[in-house]
Amino acid sequence: MADQIIQDVKQGYDRIASHFSDTRHDPWPEFSFLVPFITQEKRLLDVGCGNGRLGGAIQVTHYTGLDLSRQLLTIAQKRFPSYTFVHGSVLQLPFSNEQFDVVACVATLQHIPSIPYRKLAMQEMARVLKPNGTLFMLNWNLAEQPQYQQYRAGDEYDQGDYLIPWKNDQGEILTKRYYHGFTLPEIVGVIHELP
Fold first, then answer.
1. Is the pTM here over 0.90, yes or no?
2. Is residue 178 part of a domain?
């Protein structure tokens, strides 16, 4: 089932790429937490880069964005032609060991189903991170947001899974995006299990 969810996430983002990108231009305030760790010479990997929004908010020479959605990557490359964008999965990063000073994973790990796949994603990000590098993650805790409770996934999904609809301007549902709503103890537990 996890593999099918990943395919659904990819297809969903390809389907909504243009509309999604139109709503994702301004940097999140949380991006400011990353600024002290970035200098011009640092190599930054943005996992789940979408339309490249983080790259537009952070001044860095060596930016690489990775995403599963080819449609979002096309948009990102048009927005930021001087940056490198790569199609791929966080479950099998197409990069050498210890290649990046900073790995950013902004609202991406929450789209990875199953504990084994989330652990694998964390291991892959750690693998490409240089010694003493920085892993910057933002994850939603949907359990503490009442407006999302109506979107809890059914019994065939893991506890804490959600299917959140993406609607067009006319209110039509274009896709239901899979999210895992992390709790702080859960994400800390995954990090502590890294080799």
1. yes
2. yes
> Which distant-in-sequence residues (6+ apart) come within 8 Å of 26 by Cβ?
53
Confidence of residue 32 (pLDDT cuts 50, 70, 90): confident
**DSSP per-residue string spanning 82-125:** TSEEEE-BTTB--S-TT-EEEEEEES-GGG--SHHHHHHHHHHH
Any idea what the Cα angle at residue 56 is, between residues 130 and 70, rounded to 5°?
Answer: 80
How many domains does the chain divide into? 1
Q: Which amino acid is at 73?
A: L
Residue range of the domain that includes 64: 2-23+41-192
Mean pLDDT value of segment 53-60: 90
pLDDT per residue as tens digits for the range 117-171: 999 999 999 999 999 999 999 998 888 889 999 999 999 999 999 999 999 999 9
The enclosing domain of 143 has a CATH number of: 3.40.50.150
Amino acid letter, 48: G
